Amino acid sequence: SVAQAQVQFGPLLPAGQDRELVFRLSAAGSADTVMDILGHEKINQLQKLQLHDKDIAGDIEFSLDLAARAEPGKRLKVTGVAFDGSMTDTAVQNLPLRHDLEQAALVLTYQQGEVHISGSGLLAGIQTDFAYQRAADSSMSLNLKTANESAVVAYLQERFNLPVDGAMRLKVARSEELV
Length: 179
Known about the structure:
The protein has 179 residues and is mainly beta. The chain is 11% helix and 56% strand. The chain has helices at residues 31-39, 150-160; strands spanning 2-10, 19-30, 55-70, 77-95, 99-111, 114-123, 126-134, 140-146, 171-176. β4 and β5 form a beta hairpin. The mean pLDDT is 85.
């Protein structure tokens, strides 16, 4: 549920003529509410954002801007979606490589098909700072940095059967470009 919300909608006039409408929602509440909004049949952004198969929980403050075309006698057509938000006490399950993110704080932006997410939290049980970007053409970049701790070594031993010991810090950068 949304604890607070502010809604702007317009222009309402001239009725009966083609109009470019703007709908703005600023709200705070549960991440479930945002997922319900983004998954609404007229907005339909979960697949585009690759969130359709993720279990996401946490508290969020966000603004959502929708642009739509209204033509007399036709259904409203969404022509643009932009989203800015910040999340606290976030948990995301079913990330790539069977990872989960817990106790995270995130900053999220989505506009014109581009996604930017940055923050910090426990990724696979390891304190991690990260930045993720995905462009409209699906090219992506991911940067991760962990603290110097024994949990990193335990992860590498368990996941990759590497013969390492002690404590370690990781910095990982990955990018993919579609050609």
